[in-house]
Amino acid sequence: MTDFAARALSTFLHELGGIAIFNIRIARTYFGTAGNGPEIFRQTAIICTRSITTVLFAGVFVGAILVVQFNLMLKQYDAQMYLGGLNTSALVREVGPLIISFLLAGKIGAFTAAELGTMRVTDQIDAMECLGANPVQRIVLPRFIAIILASVILLGLGLVISIAGSTIVATVFCGINPLRFAGSFPRFVGVWTVACGMIKALVYGVIVAGVSCYKGYTASGGARGVGRAVTLAAVYTNLYIVIADFITSNILEFLTEVWRIALAGALAWLAAHGWIAGGGL
Amino acid sequence: MKTVAEYEKELRSLAMPLWGRVLHHLGKPVAEHGATVREFWHLLRAVLIRLPRRPWRRHEIAISVVHIGIGSMPIITIATAFAGLVVTNEIAWHMREALGTISMIPGFTAQFILRELGIAIPALLLTAKVGASITAEVGTMKVTEQIDALRLLGIDPVDYLVFPRFVASVFATACLTLFAVAVTMGCAISVAIVRYNFSILEYLNAVRHFIGLADIVCALVKGMVFGGIIPIISCAYGFRCKPGAEGVGTATTNAVVASTIAIILLDFVLTYLFSLVL
Amino acid sequence: MSIRFENVTKSFLDRKVLSDLSFSTRDGEILYIIGKSGVGKSVTLKHAVGLIKPDSGRIFVGSHEVTSLNREELMPVRRLCGMIFQQTALFDSMNIFDNIAYGLRSTGLDSDALAARVSEVLSLVQLDSGVLDKLPCDLSFGMQKRVSLARTIAPSPAYLLFDEPTTGLDPIITNAIGSLITGLSRQLGTTSIVVSHDMESALSTADRIMLLDNGGIAALGTPGEIRQSTNPLVMEFLAEINDTPEAGTSRTPCIWRQDEQSYREYRRAIHHDDPLDIEEVDK
Questions:
Q1: What is the DSSP letter of C2?
Q2: CA of C278: which chain B residue's CA is closest?
Q3: What ipTM was assigned to the predicted interfaces of this complex?
């Protein structure tokens, strides 16, 4: 058992190191060259159009699941008037980014791993090097940046649609007045909540991009190797996303306190100088 | 039926306007996955018909159970542990906002974990870990013509490949679901004790109040449904794998995405059905 | 101007692939490297362009020492060497024109000169310009081989490195590609290294033949010398040719491989329109 755990840990650290080194290489390529703009734009457009149907579909149902669940729980406390706000806040801050990025890990991450892996095992990457081009710069870098951009865009859209989905489900299945549902939003959801969700989206995007590009680029061994690369890309992306979720949650919680204190301080300062009416928050 | 390559070639030659392309992108998945959906129903029916018959293929099933269950243990432990750490914090934050008190944490957390979090997260991880590897394996067999070879030897690929994986996955996922719920609960409780000063007895007492046998049964049913759906979808994509390394890659990707979507969809349906019962 | 290996040693994990390999090419010659599967023929080729680094030893391409160069410094050396891969390695998302023009883009040619050069190399490999806007997957494997050859010779390399150019092709196309290799090498004056296990075409087209075994050179000489050799491995390879009544056909066990088009249709049929025999289970 200890042997098993030690092996799991060493594999994990080995993977993490490989990904880090590879990403540093991508970053160095980025700062070394320019002129990837059109290709990045093209890749972003491709990824977005490929994935948007799935993301929207999944988004609706993620919102729906959460609202049914929350409705059931809040009923016990007679706190259904908070359902809309609580649901939206949990969706935007936590559940939405997590579940939708699981989907993106499969849709974008595994796809990229498959694409790069195919190029690797059919020698296309070697051929590119032999023709005097740097494959990291030509094919990996545009995908890397495009995945990050597309993840943020898609997660943003997914969150919006999931809120819509949860509102509809709350109305149709739980019999809650949509106006009442939306009425509790302001208490829980603010600019900062959305910012938290988008920061998480960005972090998850970087994870999807980093892991899948690394796994695809280092694939080997024919069709079996590509299948393996795709599997590992999906698995490791999901794992890292859950871990990153914990870390970003804690950092964001800390930043939330900072934000509150800063906001309160700024308002107090403005009030003290007579710029706004006193009374604060 | 047209192949996707032919279909794409035809579309390229049409010089489409923008709206046409949008329609194309919306419609393509339907055309692309139509055959696989048919395959999925075939496989599901075949496996269910096969279920009550002998031989049970105990040996293959045992191997698959070890592969799926034990093989996924580390990743599920790590992932659900972190999820458990997060969930208490999030619920505490929301409770404080909504009710002004955090005394409700135990019941709320336990219900949320047992009904949703402890089941959905392992299932989504298994789509990647188990589903993708089944598709990659079956797809590689298809591409290297091993499946044709099996048929020539008189072995039915459904009986040999799909059925053991199906049974093993249902059993392993049920166990893993309980395991994941336990790990998540453990982590959630430790955060509540360390950070929010609950005593363990107080916490468990509160939990007992909110959790019944019905919750555990529902969790198991959900886990088994997810566990059953993953290998069938994965095998369907594996059997429909197109030639070459590219084919295996595409099939694996599609299998992961399709299983994820199917799990989210089924989760909603089951959650709603259970919400009527509970 | 030659490719020179000096005491090159390479192992993968604990398997030694090349041990103390030294050889050098002569200007304008066609050197065949022959050996059984897995003796490190392709590995030798990849060493020459720096895709694999040796454990010890030095490799020179012209006056450049490949082994001491880093990634950026390797770029000009790689433009000197054209490598043709076994599975063609065409970029499958680009059309044939972009594939062939890929190596030319960084040389700063304007678009007219680019198009002129592409059609020039296309005629060298005996393809007509109708294929230019097709995708690699629309072409037969033999045509893909020609395109890959065109892509490689487009930047006018001084050395051509072929990795198993005729593996998996039927005898007729094998002959066509074989004569194309010789013709082009002579015509362009390049030095060529061909990795192959096809002793027959080596004897008919090579200037020199090198036999690899156990990571070292088992025999090296002109086709005439090789024919006279008493080395047991060489005898084995020669016996293989003489034993085969109709040379070549033994390598194509399936009848459909002879006709690529129908083979492709067969593959397509079994992979797309085969309603997996579920019905059998239902009975």
A1: -
A2: B42
A3: 0.82
**Residue A248 tokens, joined:** 């970003």
For chain C, the 3-state helix, strand and coil shares in percent, each to the nearest 5, are: 45, 20, 30
Distance from C-alpha of A242 to C-alpha of A98, rounded to nearest angstrom = 7
- Inter-residue contact B167 to B272 (CB < 8 Å): no
Pairing status of strand C64-65 against strand C56-61: antiparallel
Task: Determine the Cα–Cα distance for residues B224 and B176; give it in Å rounded to an integer.
Answer: 10
For the segment A210-236, the average pLDDT, to the nearest whole number, is: 88
Query: How far away is chain A from the Cα of B55, in angstroms, using its nearest Cα?
Result: 30
Q: Which CATH superfamily is domain C3-249 in?
A: P-loop containing nucleotide triphosphate hydrolases (3.40.50.300)
Q: What are φ and ψ of residue A79, in 5° steps?
A: -115, 30
Strand C208-213 relative to strand C30-34, pairing: parallel
Give the Cα separation of B263 and B251 in Å (integer).
Answer: 18
- Say what the pLDDT of residue A201 is: 92
Write out the residues of chain C at the interface with chain B, using a CB-CB cutoff of 8 A: 92, 137-138, 267-268, 270-273, 276-278, 280-282
A150 — pLDDT class (breaks 50, 70, 90): very high
The predicted-structure confidence for B166-203, as pLDDT tens digits, reads as follows 999 999 999 999 999 999 999 999 999 988 888 888 88
Rounded to 10°, the helix A222-272/A191-217 angle is: 160
Question: Which band of pLDDT confidence, cut at 50, 70 and 90, is reported for residue A281?
Answer: very low
Would you list the domain boundaries of chain B? 57-277
Which residue, among A154, A178, A159, A190, has the nearest Cα to A51 in the 3D structure? Answer: A154
